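Meet today's protein:

…
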Amino acid sequence: MGTIHRPTKAQYRRARREAARAAAVQTKRRTRMIRVGLWSAAGVAAIALVAVAVLVLDRPPSTQATGSAPSATPQALPSTPVSVAPPTTSGTSGRTTAPPWGAPTDTAAAVAAAGLTMLGEEGTALHFHTHLDVIVDGAPVPVPADIGVDDARHRISPLHSHDATGVIHVESPTKSATFSLGQFFTQWQVSISADHIGGLAVDATHHLLVYVNGTLRPGDPAGIILAAHDEIAIVYGADAQPDVPRSYRWTNGL
């Protein structure tokens, strides 16, 4: 059986000192590595924040007129008042085809083009109705239902139609808001100005006349401001119309 050599006290103390120094070095190295890791992470985060700030600051300001595709999930009613663009005075963009003109399939884009905001429900601060007749060569052109209405997403413009009677509903959460005929036609996506409606242009033998409550209104029809119970008649054709609508028989509490 071999002899067991036990370390002396001096050797034991020396070994403990060496072990302590090694542990201290290892701890210092680990601390340095952690600091480097934290600094690296902080550097990455700082770079990311700078990149985000650059993107945000470099992003051009958004405008109501450009619009954006609606979310597939219905959103809550905006808490801010509806934004209303100034009345159009130089015509509208939209279809330049012959009638009839159906309601647009992309309601949100049409409403945004009119400078309006889709709402989660009809506004009540401002509530009135205007009637619109469109007459081409003596025959009425339907004003379709659901202009400014998105049933699938439960959203609605403050300026809209519910049926094909020609009644324009103005229901806004902003009492002082004003709305123009041009905005309605933009939502309808039908181009209109003083010299055309859709694809029907004024020429040597065809005129475009606009009447409000039976009174001829010269100039660009897009700039007409909608008012309660007004009767707006847009007449296109080769001959004068002797029986231009002067009023509308309001029913059902409208």
The helical segments are 9-58, 107-113, 181-188.
